[in-house]
Amino acid sequence: MDVSADLNELTRCPVGLVSSGVKSILDIGRTLEYLETLGVPVLTYGTSREFPAFFSRHSGFNAPWNVTDPATAANVLHAQWKLGMNNGALFAVPIPAEYEAAGMSIQKAVDQAVAESEANGISKRGKEATPWLLARVSELTQGASRISNVALLENAALVGGKIAVEYQKLAIPTVRDDPSQ
C-alpha cells in the first residue's frame, strides 16, 4: 500500500493544507476514510461538499463539511489552535470553472492510464506507480495536464493566501493579549 507521508504528517502539524483534492490517480474514497481514521478534518472550499478529484470538480465522494469563504476556513483553524489541537485540516479547492472542460478530458486520460497500469502491472509497484501514471497522463494529454496542474496550484495558493490573511487577523489579538507569546 502506497500511503503518502503527508497524510500522517497532518496528524501532528497544526496547519491548514489547501489542496486541489486527492490526485485522481489515487483511491479517493480510501484516502478520505484514512484521513477520517487519523482524525484529520476534511472540508471542501465552496458551496458543495463534494470532494474534488483534482482535475474534476466531481469525485462522487462527499466531505463531512464545507466552508464558503476564507474567514470561515480561518476560524476553523483558529478554533483548533485555541483548543490546543496539534493536527492539521485539509481544505479541498475544486479546479477553477474555466479549466473544468479541460479537466474532464484529462480525467479520461487518467482513467485510461490507470487501466493501462493495471493491465501492465505498474499499479502493483508501489511508489513507482505514481510517477509512471503522471508521465502517462501528460503523454496522453499532450501536455495539457501540466497547464491544468499550474492552474490548480495557482488557485490553491490564492485561496491559501486569503485564508492566511484572515487567520492573521484572528491570531494577532490573541498574541497581543498573551504577553508570553
What key attributes describe this structure?
4-stranded parallel β-sheet; 53% helix; 8% strand; single chain; alpha/beta; 181 residues; Indigoidine synthase fold; 4 strands
Describe the structure.
This protein has 181 residues and is α/β, with parallel strands linked by helices. It has a single domain (5-174), classed as Indigoidine synthase fold (3-Layer(aba) Sandwich), CATH 3.40.1790.10. The protein has helices at 5-9, 28-38, 70-82, 100-120, 129-140, 144-177; strands spanning 16-19, 42-45, 65-67, 89-92. Helix 3 (70-82) crosses helix 6. The longest helix is centred in the C-terminal third of the chain and has 34 residues, at 144-177. The protein is globular and about 60 Å long. The N and C termini lie far apart (42 Å). The mean pLDDT is 89. This is Pseudouridine-5'-phosphate glycosidase. One of its GO terms (cellular component) is cytoplasm. GO terms for molecular function: hydrolase activity, acting on glycosyl bonds; metal ion binding; pseudouridylate synthase activity. Keywords: Glycosidase, Hydrolase, Lyase, Manganese, Metal-binding.
**Fraction in helix:** 40-55%
Please compute the radius of gyration using only Cα atoms.
Answer: 18 Å
Please identify, by name, the CATH architecture.
Answer: 3-Layer(aba) Sandwich
| CATH domain topology | Indigoidine synthase fold
| Bulk shape | globular
Q: What is the spatial order of strands in the main beta sheet?
A: 1-4-2-3
Give the strand tally: 4
- Main β-sheet description: 4 strands, parallel
Low-confidence stretches: none
The total count of helices amounts to 6
* Overall SS class: alpha/beta
Overall pLDDT level: 89
Distance between the termini: 42 Å
**The CATH homologous superfamily:** Indigoidine synthase domain
